[in-house]
Structures are given as structure tokens and as C-alpha cells.
Please model this.
Amino acid sequence: GEDVEQSLFLSVREGDSSVINCTYTDSSSTYLYWYKQEPGAGLQLLTYIFSNMDMKQDQRLTVLLNKKDKHLSLRIADTQTGDSAIYFCAEIQPGNQFYFGTGTSLTVIP
Amino acid sequence: DTGVSQNPRHKITKRGQNVTFRCDPISEHNRLYWYRQTLGQGPEFLTYFQNEAQLEKSRLLSDRFSAERPKGSFSTLEIQRTEQGDSAMYLCASSLDLTETQYFGPGTRLLVL
Model:
């Protein structure tokens, strides 16, 4: 399957934690990724997790992977206004094709 | 090398014209990818190269689209007889052979009038 699903919108207050969720389709994906896209810009790699890991922490970012449910989440601690952007999860499927979710638009309210 | 670069950043053209975009990947990266992104959507895979060989093409890539990577370094994406539905952001990415992480360029935004 090709559908990688994300909720479309998330609003949080500055200083709170944000949790962005993603459901992917291919259980054989080796890596799963989170990208950030600011208005009018290309995609910036935020972090990735190898499929044999359950969790990865990188400064304010925590990635959780539930392989059984094919669920990936990105937690941003102490969310700042500069974190406002669209966040895409992506998986690699056979043929080395990346499949991206539709993106979650994060709005941080001062 | 500071990353993946794409030129031009913006292109406005009239329907029926041909356009060509260029992508310069990170210099040691063997793999190069093209994606298309329309408003409110995630990027959609178009094609990718391993060195100069085009290994995979999406069914989204109609016969009006052609991509080349003649020397295994930069790549071009040409769209012939552009249609209004071709208006989108065209993204290029590159990766090393043995790691699959893709690094994206800033994109070329195409508007077909």
C-alpha cells in the first residue's frame, strides 16, 4: 500500500509539547523519517529511526515507533514559535521509493 | 558542498511551452530523486537515478516528462508541452548508496498559465 496517513492540523501553546502522529503501511520499511517544511521551502530532515528501534531521542525531539501497529510519532518538547511548519513522515517502500504522508500543519500559539 | 541545489527556484510559463529544471546533488551522493509536490500534499515520487542510470519511474511520469543524469552528477527534468496541471513544486533529493536518508533541495516552483 502507498497510504501514509497523518492528521492535517495541530495547534499547541508555546512551551507545551507537541505530538504528531503517523500511520504507515509497509512493515518491511527499514527507516522511517520525519521532515519539516517551512512555507515556500524544501524539506528539512529532522530525524529518522531504524525499524529495529522503539525510540530515538534527539534534543527536543523524541520519535516513538510501534511496529506492531505501524504507528510512528514525533514529540517536540517545549514547542517554540519557530517550530510552526508542516511535518511529514515518510517511509521507504520496495523499489527505494519514499512515500510521504500528507503532512501535519503545526501552529504554535504564543 | 552545502547541500542539494536546484535551479531555477521559480518558473512561470505559458501552457504548451517546454521547461527544464536542474538539480545538483550533494557531491558524493550516488542516488538522485525527483518528486512533485502540490499544495496541501506530501511529495510524490517521480523517478530516481543510481549514478547515471534511471532505475525507477512512477506512473505519474507521463511521456511529456523526461529526466536525465548524463554524467552521474547533476540531473535535469524536462516537461514538454506543459499543462496547467503541471503547476507544482518540483523537489530533488540525493542520498548515498548505503544509507537511504534523502536530503532535499529547496525546490523549483512551476506555474503554468
User: Anything to note?
Assistant: Chain A touches chain B at residues 4, 30-31, 33, 35, 40-45, 48, 88, 90, 92, 95-103 (CB under 8 Å). The mean pLDDT of chain A is 89. The first strand of chain A starts at residue 5 and ends at 6. Chain A is about 0% helix and 55% strand.
